Amino acid sequence: MPSLILHIDEILENTFKISSIKAVEKIIIDIIEEELEAKKNNCQIIWVQSKIISSNYKIFGELKFRDKETRNINKRNKCLKRIGKILQNKFNVFIRLRAFSIKDASITALDLEN
Fold this sequence. Notes:
By secondary structure, this protein is of the alpha/beta class. The protein has one domain (3-106): Macrophage Migration Inhibitory Factor (2-Layer Sandwich). The protein contains 2 helices and 4 strands, in the order E-H-E-E-H-E. The chain starts with a strand and ends in a 12-residue tail after the last strand.
């Protein structure tokens, strides 16, 4: 269930090439798998081109995941720091990341596949 939504300022569109983003995405998913003990098929990364006007942070991300005992504050911090370093190296801008855990009781989900 881990879902990372990344809002990328539109001024970064020149460095936002799909081919190089796929490699970054794979690294980030590997980090989430390792640090949050997530299953690869459950991980999602959503890239959203945004207009960030008054913030120095040109990438803003929200990582949401189901709450588990093993996903303690140290694991979450390490996960965000590792993801932040990857994004900072790729885009060379200020990064702001947040993590939110969600209790299982409050989740309703639907997956539709062909």
